[in-house]
Structure prediction request, 1558 residues.
Amino acid sequence: MSGSFYFIIVGHWLSTPPVFEMESLPAEKAESKDDHRHLNQFLAHAALDLVDKNMWLSNNMYLKPVDKFNVCFVSAFVTAGHMRFIMLHDIRQEDGIKNFFTDVYNLYIKFAMNPFYEPNSPI
Amino acid sequence: MAQCVQSVQELIPDSFVPCVAALCSDEAERLTRLNHLSFAELLKPFSRLTSEVHMRDPNNQLHIIKNLKIAVSNIITQPPQPGAIRKLLNDVVSGSQPAEGLVANVITAGDYDLNISATTPWFESYRETFLQSMPASDHEFLNHYLACMLVASSSEAEPVEQFSKLSHEQHRIQHNSDYSYPKWFIPNTLKYYVLLHDVSAGDEQRAESIYEEMKQKYGTQGCYLLKINSRASNRASDEQIPDPWSQYLQKNSIQNQDSYEDGPCTITSNKNSDSNLLSLDGLDNEVKDGLPNNFRAHPLQLDQPSDPSNSIDGTDHVKPASSLHETKKGNTGIIHGACLTLTDHDRIRQFIQEFTFRGLLPHIEKTIRQLNDQLMSRKGLSRSLFSATKKWFSGSKVPEKSINELKNTSGLLYPPEAPELQIRKMADLCFLVQHYDLAYSCYHTAKKDFLNDQAMLYAAGALEMAAVSAFLQPGAPRPYPAHYMDTAIQTYRDICKNMVLAERCVLLSAEILKSQSKYSEAAALLIRLTSEDSDLRSALLLEQAAHCFINMKSPMVRKYAFHMILAGHRFSKAGQKKHALRCYCQAMQVYKGKGWSLAEDHINFTIGRQSYTLRQLDNAVSAFRHILINESKQSAAQQGAFLREYLYVYKNVSQLSPDGPLPQLPLPYINSSATRVFFGHDRRPADGEKQAATHVSLDQEYDSESSQQWRELEEQVVAVVNKGIIPSNFHPTQYCLNSYSDNSRFPLAVVEEPITVEVAFRNPLKVPLLLTDLSLLWKFQPKAFSGKDNEEVKELVTSQSAMIGTEVISEFLINCEESKVARLKLFPHHIGELHILGVVYNLGTIQGSMTVDGIGALPGCHTGKYSLSMSVRGRQDLEIQGPRLNNTKEEKTSVKYGPDRRLDPIITEEMPLLEVFFIHFPTGLLCGEIRKAYVEFVNVSKCPLAGLKVVSKRPEFFTFGGNTAVLTPLSPSASENCSAYKTVVTDSTSMCTALVSSASSVDFGIGIESQPEVIPVPLPDSVLKPGASVQLPMWLRGPDEEGVHEINFLFYYESVKKQPKIRHRILRHTAVICTSRSLNVRATVCRSNSLEDEEGRGGNMLVFVDVENTNTSEAGVKEFHIVQISSSSKHWKLQKSVNLSENKDAKLASREKGKFCFKALRCKEKEAATQTSEKYTFADIIFGNEQIISSASPCADFFYRSLSSELKKTQAQLSVYAEKQSTEDAVRLIQKCNEVDLNIIVLWKAYVVEDNKQLILEGQHHVILRTVGKEAFSYPQKQDPPEMELLKFFRSENTTVSSRPSVEQLSNLIKTSLHYPESFNHPFHQKSLCLVPVTLLLSNCSKADVDVIVDLRHKTTSPEALEIHGSFTWLGQTQYKLQLKSQEIHSLQLKACFVHTGVYNLGTPRVFAKLSDQVTVFETSQQNSMPALIIINNV
Prediction:
């Protein structure tokens, strides 16, 4: 069970679909969780409320785990443009996740600079 | 947390009320049973005091109790079973559903607008039932019995005896150790004696006397006479009496039912109250059957021995649940309290009041006082003692604490009379009478004691109640100690493992927190208590938590949704399907359309399933539909599962209403705008040599360019048919309607001709879809043959194959994510209006392994497997939106769409139908090659056909031959190895001179006024009978340009009968011809200088023809032979060949070039005179031994066609030019003399080796010569693309096109030639001057009179001329002025004088010419002729 991650980027409007979605499972569990893919979405979606609340309380873009459901932690990162990166993980590993978020942020900025990319559209 | 009916300040006191037991004699019970109520139930509606009550607390302070409620219940000697409680709660929740017309609150949070029902009555009733059904426990006394009502009836034989019996019974229950369960507050319970009196039946006197007796025995405070049943129950209950029991009714019945089900553990009080077992059966019967047997005539008959089945013994407790359900149902019709009047109600109310005032409260007051005194007296001592012992032992025994702790949690620590419990007892009592101040302090003390003793269960209870009472304190002197609650909950849950208590604690705490708007804390509490052991509780709590989230100051919508989902999940696990569905639906509002597709799919799927199990099939279908129609990210297996589920549900729906309209299916997608409709038969495949006309078919892609071409062709032919005018109601015929065609009108279809509809399906799923029995759905309004419309519009839908035949595709497989078109046919057999509505099919999928490999492409081999899979029948409509209108301003500003009628054809009467076949039609030709083919016209309809015409943009490509008699064999089979030309064998002697014939262009269909593109087909009878066929020869000439040519033919034909709707029909054919290079012919014409022509008066010309074999690539072509060169002109003709090459046949091997030179003459004047202007003279010069008659078909045909197409081109160029010049005839005249209209036809044969056979191909090339001296080509030269010009930013100066003819043109006005001896011998030594006669011939080339000035003076300005050694002089007149008539030749005799020998140039005379009617304008020009050299020799 441990070592699975789920990462999603959500645009800053409520009504837009998720911009990017990715799931990473430990190799041996690749198939078994197939039925529960929607659970990740549920969790990430529910955590948005807390992300929206917490982002005004912190100066950092990286918000520590904002939510927790059973064994699942939800970490978040809010960019300056209020794009919300959300990561579901089941092991505490703040540094790694923070670095990951920063890397993704860099990539995202590069991507968003593309004149042909329309903000908030799925990547 | 959702809004509740009760506020928390009401809720908590109502949840903890003084409990009173009721013990009835069987006779008393019988009296109440008449009302279908037990005694406890009878009192229930009146158990709340309406007035305020006063009591004194231990400190003698007056304390006011408001709204006190007491709970009277029958004694139940067994603690309720957890299973029973769970069942009860379950039923309560499922019994309480949201009201139908409940107005939901609309909450707007951010982007979300949510409809949320603000109240959750199921939760409230759950909570109420839960709190009421709490089993009494030892660590608290809140629901222990404070008092006991002993009830006997006045009708009993010995009521007083009965009372003492009951009293004993109560005592036995309380103090006998056999009965552990009904907990009693204090040992000496208050006994209250109630005498029930039936007013309608009993003797009032007796009751009064008994009451008096009782009063004496028990004191006025301790007994009561309750009169009920003031009227007989058998009276019709027409009087409307309020039924205060109804609100308790359902719950009670459920409770009763439960008690039955749990059988052995529930024993009603009366069972124990009567020691004699005889009555037991009857009573049991009564209680048990009271409800089921309520339809009996009169309740009084209950006394009679009831049916044996019920009287056996207690075993019948185990009744099947079904009969109990019936019981419950039957129960709803019962009127409770039927024997009670309003006065009786008042009496009962009075009784309760009396009981509380006189009996209960004083008892409580007394007890509190006692307890208080006890405590006060014991305080000092016990406290010090306790603490001392504590200190004494605890100091040394710290490690034992943990053991102690463990023991405390499980077992009972304190004996019932322990002082710590006394505090607790007092606290509880105070709490019950709403004395919260005192209660709090007591709880607080108790808590400390318990904590000191590590009695965790007790401590938790005290903590909980302390917190509650602190909250309830009037004026709230201290804040609500939430941490007390938290500790209590934690203790209950973790240490005591008592979820029920923890739950109660949470419910109370959450409610309190909610009242303080601490929603997030409440939510956290609620969520914390969700656990695996009870799904129902978890579900309810999660739902409340969700409501907390939405009620927060900034609503957390998504949290709400998430917890709703969780609650729904738990509900479904708990079997509460309706609640589950409701939760999912509410959560759906948040997720809908937000792109969280997996989540949305899951919700939809669950909604679908739940709806299905609840038989809400429509909802189920629409939910499943949602999953399928959206672009899904689900895996293929998941999609397959969704689809199967959907089909299954759908099948059930359709089975429910088999006769209903067919349901609309969501899959596969139909791209309705891509629908194409085709009218007519399918194209026949090529049949041997026969090749059918391509016409129109669905296989052709739409090409706007070609459709425009076809349209133009049709317009052309229609214009020709209608004498040059296109009728205003003309619309191009459309056989294939698609999204590009003009669909604003109803298309016309002909009866008995099939209509094919192509429907574009797309499968969005990763699972293959199988459609079976796919056919079109249509509506038809037949039209009577009489012509007038049927008044009652009969609408036939499908199935009527007499009118319209429908083709059914039995299997149609669409693979995963595939787009596929299906072609469906209709066969109209009747005229009328047809409307194609949609498609109808069975939707199914392929089971098992087929989905995995997905190769099921061959429908045939899977037939067996297909039929196994499930399928549902349904339809999908085809609705096509027309184009957006954009004509008027209104249409531009708004978005409006025009109609699209492509699916609404009108079936019209029969029309002829033509089929055209081409026989021997080549696919490859050499440029200019002539090939003969045959065309077969077949009329396949039942109507005669007329007016057949063919139109093409390339009329020079083909011909049907002229009007001249056709000599070639008519049938294609006879034409093998026969030349396409009409030939005549000639003797070889005549080869150098031309054979002349003439033909008129009108004969070949090339007139001035008619359009050359439209060619009437020479049908033998001009009418083609039904079923008849005609074969006609057709000559083809390979286009002059090499490459692939697509040539469009449009056949036009009409019916013999005039039809109002369809005037004509068309048939299209596109021929594809690949041409390869053959010969390249270039020709020039120049004036002959020789004038000594005997016959040619008007001058003669030399024609040079260069023929080059440019065919290099074709290995098969060996060589070309030029067999004949013909001229065709109105004014000129070829006379003879000038250079007689040895190569008689004029062979040209690859890349060889041959040159021919011919002499051309002007036609004789008399010939010209007899000729009409359109008559062309053909002159043939033959190189072989066969003459091809160039003035006959097909040679002349092609000549005329190419000529006319050439003319067209040049006319277009000239038209501008000519217009300008027309004003100046003079210039034209001058130009004219430069023009020549000589056309050269080169006829050739090519020897081709193909498949070891030698073939001879024939062909012809045309060169059109217009200008003297200018080279002309057989095929249009490729023009270099104009170089890109620099962009000019200034206006170009208006270059005036000089209206003056160019020098060159003028120089051709007069042709001069000098005639002289080439060498002249003159003896200079004899005569120093040598005179040579020179003749100057002047010939006028123009048609006008020309003034000519001949100037002989030397005027050479060039320096070279000066250097000429020794010049000569002209003698005699040095200037001549002449006037030359049109085409006149004049000779001038000149004399040249030489003085030396040598070579001289005689070309010095300068000739000026001007048109005689012009004044001076053009007086210029001279003949720049070749040097005319003369050699003067000295002899």
Q: What stands out?
A: The longest strand of chain A covers residues 62-69. The interface with chain B takes residues 13-18, 34, 37-38, 40-43, 45-50, 53 of chain A (CB under 8 Å). The helical segments of chain A are 37-54, 94-113. Chain A has a mean pLDDT of 76.
